[in-house]
Amino acid sequence: MPSKGTPGMKAALLETGRSHEPFREIIDRFGLLLGRQAEARDSLEPVDLGAFAPDEDHFLSGEPLVNFLDIQLLQGPFRQAAARVWPVMGVIFPSLAESLALLERKLTDMPELLSQCLQAVAQGDGEALDSAAARVGVTSDFLLMALGVAYAPCIAAQRQALASKAPVELWRKPYCPVCGSDPDLAVLENHPEPSEFLVSKSGEIWHHCPVCTQRWRFVRMVCPGCGNQDHETLTRFTIPESPREHIYACEQCRQYLPCLDLVEQASKIDFDLAALKAVHLDAAAQARGYLPISPAPWAALGFAEEQTKAS
């Protein structure tokens, strides 16, 4: 059986599986994948960014740092990450193994295909994605998913170097300042300094990126999915047995984001596992008809368990 990552990660996943028995299989499968991605990330060295110099005005207007990067610099790290992650993914999800092996062979036989794939996954280029999928002989949805699980540790290994080149503390957007991905989790937490993000004494909102693992502050009472600021159409609800776990939902776009309230919690948590550990919140939100903002793969599965319905 593939490794789940560090001993601490293994223990956390086991405990989460026991606490949320209806979702044990999801937690076990995707926990294995997250563990291998963490191992791949930690094995990669940051690339030489060379003349990487993001335009600050363009960055603060909403362009994530990856937009200023020569993504061809990521070819080596991407192939290394893929070599670690794809075999495990094929074990966890056997129906994907043949297509993953085909993709690996095509990338070896057609080196120029890798450039197109990186353009698709890093820059959201739909035309490049469709063209690459046709060349490989797989669907675009499969290719994006496969590229994404290898790209995540690849870009996460460059996160600190990229973030050091721009004032990420001034970022005001709902998506990640480093890689542009949507968040998988919001967190309420206290910080000692006054801030425009602090409303009353109930904490600041921080978002977590499931791709590069960056965390950034976001304004409260704004839907990260559509920008809605009408408090009458912004909803927060909880599951009775988890009063410190919330679901933020928007009645205009019908999207949701899980949220953890850590205002009164001093102990540290593993933010890279936190969204998977909150899979029961995904189920509760989807039982009410909301759609996930998060790009996390388990959030797209669809849930209908009666026991997850929120109060």
Uncertain residue segments: 195-200, 304-311
Q: For this structure, what is the CATH homologous superfamily of the largest domain?
A: FdhE-like domain
User: What is the total domain count?
Assistant: 2
Gross geometry: globular
Average of per-residue pLDDT values: 87
State the end-to-end CA separation.
38 Å
Kindly identify the CATH topology of the largest domain. Answer: FdhE-like fold
Q: Quickly count the helices.
A: 11
Secondary structure: helix percent = 40-55%
Strand element count = 7
Tell me the structural class: alpha/beta
* CATH architecture descriptor of the largest domain: Alpha-Beta Complex
Word description of this protein:
The protein is 42% helix and 12% strand. The chain is an alpha/beta fold. It has two domains: 7-44 and 70-157, no CATH class; 168-308, Alpha-Beta Complex (FdhE-like fold), CATH 3.90.1670.10. A hairpin with a 6-residue loop joins strand 2 and strand 3 (215-218). The radius of gyration is 19 Å and the shape is globular.
Keywords, separated by commas or semicolons:
single chain; 311 residues; alpha/beta; FdhE-like fold; 2 domains; seven-stranded mixed sheet; 11 helices; globular; disordered C terminus
